[in-house]
Amino acid sequence: MSLDGSFLSDEQFLCSICLDVFTNPSSTPCGHSFCMACISRYWDGSKVCQCPLCKKTYHKRPDLQINRTLREITDQFRFMSGGAVEKRGARGGVKEGSIRSNFLDELRKKLPRSLQPPSQPIPCGIQRESTMTVTAATSLASSVPDQGSVAAVTCPSAPRPTPPHCHPSGRRRFTVSGAASASRTPICGIHHRGLLSYCRTDRLCICPECETEDHKHHDTVALVDEWTETKEKLSESEQEIQEMIRRRTGKIEEIRRSASEMEAAAEREATGGAGLLSQLACAIQHSQAELAEVTDISRRAARLQADAMVRQLELELEELRRREGALAELAQSDDYVHCVKTFPALSSPPPAKDWSGVSLSCDLGTRSIYRSLAALLEGFQEDLLTIVETGFPASALEPSPFRSEPRMRRVQEYAVDVKLDVNTAHPKLVVSEDMKSVRCGDRHQMVPDNPERFDRVVCVIGREAISSGRHYWEVDVGGKTDWDLGVARQSMNRKGKIHVAPSNGYWFLSLRDKKKYTFRSEPSADVHLTQRPNRIGIFVDFENGQVSFYNVEAEAHIYTFNDVFSECIFPFFSPCTNKSRKNEAPLTIAPVTMAE
């Protein structure tokens, strides 16, 4: 091993920021070293940290630690130099002097005896071979570190020629063990003989003289035998490692398969649970609306019945008080003839109803609703217990436009070009030339009264019938106080008063008085939206019998009708009356812009 002036450079101990010997050196993730204080000040106040040398950028400031090994070497260098190291000059160098020689001399003293430079000059050919082949045989046991030794230098692949002046005959030097420069035999750096043995005690490759002098009572074997035994161990180790690789590869596949199954189960659970709870919520909401309607009807009927009874009783009281007064007058009269003639008519009781068994009915008619709700909850509980025992079926993972996010983008993929059918528009409706917008005018227009035209309800339907597949369109409703949007079946009633309900072929979402949103179900159900929509998206899945409404701007689902379509359906639009110009804004079929 050569220890000349190029062994270590003084610049290796200088910080490139302060140009001085390292103080508490720390290394960045890119491998460059700086003083801890210097690199900290360099990065202070910077949004993005960057290496001063290679300019590698770190978006998150690295958590630097002191490089203790480099600090110990630097402290030793500073101690041996006596603190005489100066900063770099104009050309980036340092002053040469006793610093390097002192440092290298100290390193020479710490080298093991086998690597100490010879005190007597060695012929150049021998010195070159010894220098290049020293400790080369230790590469056979490189996996086992040698305590107290330095890094080994491997033997060159081919011997270097020896200059002729190194021996009087111009030939290479031979020893008892054979040619000292044999191409395949490593050479001992001390005795210049072939390394033919291996010391198991010290785990070193040695020559015969080393074995006699330093390893006399150690466990030594021939190097070839050790290599043969090592090769067998290598084969066993290789097989063992291959088996470990196989087991771990199998475990990775098992974990990934379990993760995929878990993801599918989570998706199935989320979809099934959402659907189940949504059905329960819809059923409860329907029962709640039905209960409110029945209760209101019963209350109004009871009030009317009570008012009628009170009026009848008041009439009877009025007649009885009149007769009471007449009898009192008759008792005070002195006209005996008049009294005798009048008394029979006044004494007989007036025609009156027997009110003894009459009472106001307190039956609100809600028992049937509660019975239906109880049966529904009982069925829900049975389904819930079944799910607890068996889980949701795999069919719950079938693709659905209402299942996975982003939902808006999925349904918008079925966008269609919808235009209005002017032949169906109510006479007060004004349809734009492109048949994309409709508003309610102030007066009736002169239009033919054809069978398909609505004559009482201010509405219009689309031109294209929907008989299969999935369809989606969007309508701008901003600025309006009232509107109806949805679909209607082909056989809908277009003349006279229309009862809007799914049973009559109408599936609507309505707005009234600018704030009251209603689903035209049976009975109608109100919905409270946290954000007022300016654009409504309507999605139809004909085969699955679904009509869904979306708040396009909020990308939120509002409501879904579930029914069975037995005939063609058409898009339905009603801008409602303009209410003295308060609701004159039009309904406009807008182009669909895909959500991000």
Structure description:
This protein is an alpha+beta fold and 596 residues long. 34% of the residues lie in helices and 15% in strands. The strands form 6 sheets. The protein has a 7-stranded antiparallel β-sheet with strand order 10-11-22-13-18-19-20.
Please tag this protein with its features.
seven-stranded antiparallel beta sheet, alpha+beta, 9 helices, about 600 residues
Task: Tell me the number of strands.
Answer: 22
Broad structural category: alpha+beta
Low-pLDDT runs: 1-6, 84-101, 114-183, 395-406
Strand order, largest beta sheet: 10-11-22-13-18-19-20
- How much beta, percentage-wise? 15-25%
> How large, in whole angstroms, is the Cα Rg?
51 Å
**What is the mean pLDDT?**
76
Please give a quick description of this structure.
With 596 residues, this protein is α+β, with helices and mostly antiparallel strands.
Topology:
Elements: E1 25-27, E2 33-35, H1 36-43, E3 49-50, E4 57-58, H2 68-81, H3 98-109, H4 124-133, E5 174-175, E6 178-179, E7 197-199, E8 204-206, H5 208-213, E9 220-222, H6 223-332, H7 336-347, H8 367-390, H9 407-412, E10 429-431, E11 437-440, E12 460-461, E13 470-476, E14 483-489, E15 506-512, E16 516-519, E17 525-527, E18 535-541, E19 546-551, E20 556-562, E21 569-574, E22 587-590
Antiparallel strand pairs: 1-2, 3-4, 5-6, 7-8, 7-9, 10-11, 11-22, 12-21, 13-18, 13-22, 14-15, 14-21, 15-16, 16-17, 18-19, 19-20
Helix pairs in contact: 6-7, 6-8
